[in-house]
Each structure stands twice: as structure tokens, then as C-alpha cells.
Amino acid sequence: MIKSLQIKDYALIENISIEFGSGLNIITGETGAGKSILIDAMGLLLGERASAEVIRKGAAKSIVEGIFSLDGNKKVLKLLTENDIDVSDELIIRREISSKGSNRCFINDTPVTLNLIKEAGDLLVDLHGQHEHQSLLRPDTHIEMLDGFGTFEKEKDEYYGLYKQLNAAVRELEDIKSREKTLTEKKDIYSFQLKEIESVMPLEGEDEQLTNTLKVLENSEKLFETSASVYGLLYDNENSIHDQLNKVKNELDSVEEYDNYFQGLIEELKQAIALIDDVTASVRDYNTKLEVDPSEIDAKRLRLSSINMLKKKYGGSIAAVTAHLERVRSELLLAGNFDLETERLEKLISELRIRCGDKASVISEKRKAVSKKISKELINTLSALGINNASFEVKIASRESQNSNYINAGGKKLHYTSDGFDEVEFYISTNAGEDVKPLVKVASGGEISRVMLSIKTVLAKSDKLPLLIFDEIDTGVSGRIAQKVGQSLKDLASFHQIIAITHLPQIAGLANHHYVVEKSEAEQRVFSSIRKLKTEEQIREVAKLMSGENVTEASLKGARELMGLKD
Fold first, then answer.
1. Above 90 in pLDDT, residue 364?
2. For residue range 235-246, what is the model confidence (pLDDT) as tens digits?
3. Are residues 253 and 270 in contact, defined by beta-carbon separation less than 8 angstroms?
4. CA pair distance 114, 45, nearest whole angstrom
């Protein structure tokens, strides 16, 4: 649901902020006050295109921002995760339209594309009016709505699992066939590369180890001379450091009996002599073991050269060389087993096409049974909303595949999707004697809004969109039918958050939250604003809808009755 909407410098709106509640949110106001501007701004927030013309005169840009509560909306959460957008309990969508023509979009303060805004909007809001966000006017959504009304989720999950297996096997077979010619042509090259790498078989880190070893071996003469010199200075030469330190210690030993001050110094000299002895021993051992075999140097140079050559040819590192070796082995193995691998995959695909077809056929039969129930309920609901003599049909069809991708069902090779082989579209006629036509071709305005309301009422429990917005829901409606429309909206608000613009008191009186849009003038400029009404204000607003500006006691009483309030 939407928690709040903020609009800045958009058309007649300078700066408004609205907090919406759950249930039925009603918006009223005089003609021209800016109600349609409010809906247009909402459409902008949901990904509809806009130009700099919407920017309020004198402003640098228009900003529309909405905060939505996700309430565990898995589809939206998945969309955010897939696009590396921070996820929380709230979703903040913001659009900025600059006077310079730039269009900036943000989700949770992360810059995104307009298409991503639209994807998110399609998962959050169904906006009915002169707008694009009308999911029922998109035939591709009809199959999902139909399935939501049914109870065959298990069968759909089982089919979808088979569908993924089939597509994966088809892709693998296509990949193998596309690679066959290339592998045949490159077989000799791969064989040479395999032999070349396997003749060396470098180990991870071996190049660094060889480099360090060669650095020692190639400088062995210098290392030998230096270590011998250091040994002499420390211990072996006349007046070596070892001898000098011992002389100092002996001198201090001779005076220790006269002053305890020298005891600490003597102990530190003993530690220094011990340390010099340890260093001397290490240098002597290093010098003794430093033997150089010229043939060993040549062998290590040759090995390092071979490894560096492989690195240069196959990726720049031993890890890349090893990875290339594994690819070459895999390609050569495949090249030698094309027929067997192709035969295995073709057999698997054939089996999966039959299994998918069988499962899709079960789902199709269940859809047909559900569609009859929906049609019957919808015709009754349409009649209650003043559209008499309506006809409604759920057209379920399938078509044969025109390519090699198909599933087998009823002896036919049928086109398929992740939903099966059915193609579902809602057809309707709102006048007696007329043939049903695709819902997308039905008249616009209030009639289409009532059709949408009827369908939403029937599909209320299954429809997953949390927010429904109805604009012009009351066009051509009055009296008893208006009361029915209002009650349908009220019932629907038990399952969804509803925002509806209306001129009818019968609808406005049922609001859980009532807002009024007003137009004012200041400093020779027109401003549109919106405010939430308190109970007494709501009573008066409903009364105004009944009797006009001159509110009477009778209209106030009628308003209370519509709102279910006692005098």
C-alpha cells in the first residue's frame, strides 16, 4: 500500500504531502480543482512518461515521491534484489522532471531507469482511468488473474519445474549443435594446446617460487662472500664482535663486587653475546649450505620460461592456464562424443515435451472450469453496478508452434510458455445483442472503470496488487447504482487499499479516509492543495455533494445516514 505521496512544483501544485490509510480512501473536490492532476502525478510516479511542460511555472523541476509499504511483496523484493537495490520494509520511489529536459528516477535513493520504475509500479498499483497502469487492459495479465481465482497452484508448480528442465535441455542441445562445427575445425588446435600445457603442467604459485629461487641461485657468489664476511666480523676475525663483547663483560665482572650498579649491565651483555652467537650460527649454516649447481640454474630458468610462455598465451596467470586446460579437455571430450550426447539430449527433450504437455493439459481443463464460474459471477456483479445485459467470456485458446520449440499435447505440437500452452484473454459485451469483444476494445471512462471494479470484485481474493486507484469511477452513475458502486469499493477495500476520485455522495460517504482537493489564488497565481477531512468536515463535504454549496440540515442528515452515523 502507499503510505504517503509528496508532489512539488507539478502543474498547479506547489507543494503537497498526503498520508494515505488502509481501506477506502476517497478524494473529492470541485471540477478543475486539480484532482486529475493528482492522478497524473501518481501516474508519473509509476513510470508514465512526462515532459518539462508539467513543471510549475518558475520552478526548476517537478518532484513526485511516494513511500510504499511492501508488506512482504515477494515480487517487488525479488525485483529490488535482482537490481542490487537496498531492501527494507518500505519502498521509496521518486521522479524528478527538470526544466532542461532531464528525467531522473530513484528507488530507495538508488538511481534507476524509467523501465525499472515502471516494473515496480506494475507490481504495486493498478490505476484505472486515462492511464497506462490498467493491468486488466493488458491481455498478458489475464492468465495470471484467472489462475489466481483457481486452486491449482500445485499443478502449476509441477509444470513450471518441467518447463525449466525442458528449456535447459533445449538450450544445451542448441549449444552443442552450434559448437559442433567449431569444435571440428578447432580439434587439432585444441589437441596441440592440450599437449603443450600438459607437457609443463604448472602448479599454482610455482612461478613466484621459481622467481625467488632463481634470485638466490643467480646471486649465490655475492651471498657466499657476504655471509662469510659477516661470520668473520661476528666471530672468526681477530677482535670480532663476539670477542669485544666478552672483553667488556670481563671488565665489568672485575668491578661488580664494588658496586651492584653493574649487575644489570652484565646481564644485558650476556643476552647480547647469546644473540650474537645465535646470529653467527645461522650465518655459518647458511654459508655452509650455499652450494650452486649450474645445471640446476639452467633447469629452473627453462621451467620458468615455459610457464611464462603459457601464461602469456592463455590468460596471464597459472590459474587462467589451468582453467583453459580444463576447457580444452572438456571440448575435446565433447568432440569425441557428439553423437552420444546429442542422442541423450534429444531423448530427454522428447520425454519432457510429453510430460509438459500432459501437465499443461490438466491445468488447461482446470482453467476452463474456473472460467465458467468467473463469467457467471461477473455478469451478476456487472448487473448490480448498472451494466445490464452484459456478456463476459474467458477465451482460452492454444496454437501450434511454428518452430522447433513446442510441447506435445493431444497429438499436437503446441506453442508454450511458463504458464502452459493456454492463451487467455477476457472478452466482454456491455450491450444486449452485441458480440463479446476483447476487453481492451471496450468503451473507456466510467463504464470501463465499473467493468474493472466488477472484475476486481470477483477476483479480489486472488489479485496480488496491493493498491487500486479508480478515476472517473462514477461517470454516468447515479442513485441506487451509485450506492452499489460504493459498496463494491468498500468490499474491495477489505482486500486492497483503494484510492478513488468521485463526485457522488453515495460513494464518498463510505470512505475510511476522505480528502478534498481545493484550488486557491494568491499573488495572482493559482494553487491546488489537498487536505484530509475530520469527521465533521467529511459530513459537510458529503452534504455538499448532495445539495451543492448551500448545505442544508436535510443534506447534513442525509450525509450522516450515508456515512452510517447517528444524529
1. yes
2. 888 888 988 898
3. no
4. 10
Q: What is the helix (H) or strand (E) element at residue 248, kind and residue range?
A: helix 241-255
The neighbouring-strand residues paired with 92 are 67
- Report CA 196 to chain centroid distance, whole Å: 45
Alpha-carbon Rg for the chain in angstroms: 41
CATH number for the domain whose boundaries are 1-130+464-533: 3.40.50.300
Sign, Cα dihedral of 538, 542, 543, 547: positive
Q: Are strands 407-409 and 412-414 parallel, antiparallel or unpaired?
A: antiparallel
* Cell 482511468, residue located: 129
Residue 469 CA to residue 447 CA, distance in Å, equals 15
Give the cell for residue 246: 666478552
Using an 8 Å Cβ cutoff, are 159 and 360 in contact? yes
Q: pLDDT tens-digit profile of 289-312?
A: 887 778 888 888 899 999 999 999
DSSP letter for 403, please. S
Burial annotation 1-17 (CB, 10 A radius, 16+ → b, else e): bbbebbbbbbbbbbebe
Residue 89 C-alpha cell reads as: 520494509
Closest Cα to residue 142, out of 370, 477, 482, 377? 370
User: What's the CA gap between 101 and 498, in Å, rounded?
Assistant: 33
